[in-house]
Amino acid sequence: MQELRVEELGNGVVKRPTRLADGRELIYYDDPGTALGPDRAVDARDLAPRPDTATMRRDVLTGDWVSVAAARQNRAFLPPAHLDPLAPQSVENPSEIPSSYDVAVFENKSPSFGPALAAAVGEAPAAADAPRDLADLDAPGLGRTRTSVGRCEVVCFSPEHSGSFGTQSVTRARTVIEAWADRTAALSTLPGVEQVFPFENRGEAIGVTLPHPHGQIYAYPYVTPRTTSLLASIEREGHDLFERILAFERASDRVILTGEHWTAFVPFAARWPLEVHLLPHRHVADLAETTDAERDELAPLYLRLLRGVDALYDSPTPYIAAWHQAPVHRSRDTVRLHLQLTSPRRAADKLKFLAGSEAAMGAWIGDVPPEDAAARLREAVAGIPEVTR
């Protein structure tokens, strides 16, 4: 056992960083008033060396960069509960996390984006051809490649084998939010990182391979295509775009849930049969810029929203919960933090698949009028009691 150095975060959350056997970073985030002691077990596994950082290739037709990460082929796929790689280690389960925990964050074993520098013992080899800067990434030319510099982290919401963010307590949700904010700040300082993206994939219909309640954080070496398109919209519509969107939606019949600091709504031009956006009432570029009061309200409000989404049908709803944040080095005064929660579920037993128009041309056809979707969600959320525990 080892006693880790401690850092006090907001809301009484305690941060305890350490390393796994192959040098990857592991961070425990303890709930306020946790029942866990200060000691954590040492990761004594005999692990293979970390893979080389992946390579990305530029699609000359779109300008997008595509990371080619062959090591991801070896990741776990729906393992039995006793071999859950995100559960605390046991005699029969040499998992990724040596000790019991409340919330744990660690570097992905098979990342799409990896370190730029071999700064620690056991860390992946240094990037062979890292991006020079954003201008380098935008330069023209066929056959252009760069090393996929960045980081991919796994965020475990609970040591339990199954569940999601929405099944957590308010205390635990608040700890996860604190971890998201802390990791956003830390990842934004890494060499070569241009954007940080926390998200949760939920359900096998989305492609989830582990039922364990968890999400991920990607730190990209470029500004993502979705955000690049957003920047063009802000340039076209005006720098106060998010302020006007919030006022427009709050005056509509598409609002699902609202508080002092946040509003959830179905957007005017929703693409998915189930799509909800969640915006803070003041401008913040990312989760690291939110206040304690905003995080305190977000925990129960977001839980109530997710539980309402699950109340629509008799079985849990598959979704992607995507926290869009401003780029690290640009447009932080115009791009507002916002959640986009989307689900392909268009009926109890039907999914929307992206076929020719959407997948090939990016030309979306909505299946459900946004106002109808909002009415159903509002009714479902109204049936969920105020979340206090």
List descriptors:
HIT family, subunit A, alpha+beta, three-stranded antiparallel beta sheet, 389 residues, twelve-stranded antiparallel beta sheet, globular, 2 domains, 19 strands
Structure description:
There is one protein chain. The protein has 389 residues and is α+β, with helices and mostly antiparallel strands. The two termini are 32 Å apart. The relative contact order is 0.12. It has helices at 134-138, 170-187, 225-237, 241-250, 292-310, 356-361, 370-382, and strands at 2-3, 7-8, 14-19, 25-30, 39-40, 55-58, 65-68, 103-107, 145-147, 151-156, 195-202, 214-220, 255-258, 262-265, 274-280, 319-324, 338-343, 345-347, 350-351. It is built from seven helices and 19 strands. Pathway: Carbohydrate metabolism; galactose metabolism. Keywords: Carbohydrate metabolism, Galactose metabolism, Metal-binding, Nucleotidyltransferase, Transferase, Zinc. Pfam families: GalP_UDP_tr_C, GalP_UDP_transf.
Using the 3D structure, state the CATH architecture of the largest domain. Answer: 2-Layer Sandwich
Oligomer: single chain
N/C terminus separation? 32 Å
Could you say how many structural domains there are in total?
Answer: 2
Alpha-carbon Rg, integer:
21 Å
Number of helix segments? 7
Instruction: Please name the CATH topology of the largest domain.
Output: HIT family, subunit A
Q: Considering the protein shown, what is the CATH homologous superfamily of the largest domain? A: HIT-like
Pathway: Carbohydrate metabolism; galactose metabolism
Catalytic activity: alpha-D-galactose 1-phosphate + UDP-alpha-D-glucose = alpha-D-glucose 1-phosphate + UDP-alpha-D-galactose
Cofactor: Zn(2+)
Organism: Microbacterium insulae
